[in-house]
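Bug report (template v2)

What were you trying to do?
Predict the complex of my protein with heme C.

What happened?
Run completed; filing so the output is reviewed.

Input:
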Amino acid sequence: MKRFIITLVVLCVVVIAGVGVFIVSGVYNIGADAHHTRPVYALMQALRERSIEHHAQGIVVPKLDDPQLILKGAGQYAAMCTGCHLAPGMAENEMRPGLYPKPPQLSKFRPDPREAFWVIKHGIKMSAMPAWGASHDDATIWSMVAFLQKLPDLSPAQYKDIVAKAPPDEDMDMHGDADHHPDAAEHQP
Ligand code: HEC
């Protein structure tokens, strides 16, 4: 028994030292174009899915079918999300092929409202998905969630239409370029 414990401790020390040498050596390729092996990717996917499910479970979903809420969410989505997640009628852009993990096309499925709220608010570590909660209150994030429930039903023309009618994304003023945004420009006084 004692021998077994000593062997185990030595093994642990060797593994920790090995990992340390590996990290310090710099041979690991951190490039986004050097994809994970299948087992590593599957492991990270499982970690991500379980984490989101666990953290989202207590969230209380408000009423999401309010047309004003959906309209507000459309404006938010058009201003902040299409570069990565696209929208009906939008072709691939120059950024998405290089993103890893690849952002899903949110017009292709309806994410669970609780999980969508949690992901939008907190983001996803070591991916391109930002934590929008750092700059948006819960009510604004729920408007995006409400819009995502509608998005898969929209044709390119309907998408364009709802975005044109949406209130401007006031948070855009932070960047000082609201005047130059083609969709926001129509709403400027
Ligand atoms: C810079 C790129 C980027 C931007 C901008 C971005 N996202 Fe994401 N988003 C991602 C990536 C990448 C993932 C997937 C991460 C992963 O798979 O681990 C993701 C995942 C998500 C998911 C989870 C989808 C699922 O699989 O269930 C939702 C919901 C989401 N984003 C909503 C939004 C919304 C709403 C906005 C705009 C406010 C937004 N994202 C802006 C990159 C982005």
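What did the reviewer find?
The chain has eight helices and no strands. The helical segments are 2-25, 38-56, 67-80, 82-85, 113-122, 138-150, 156-165, 182-185.
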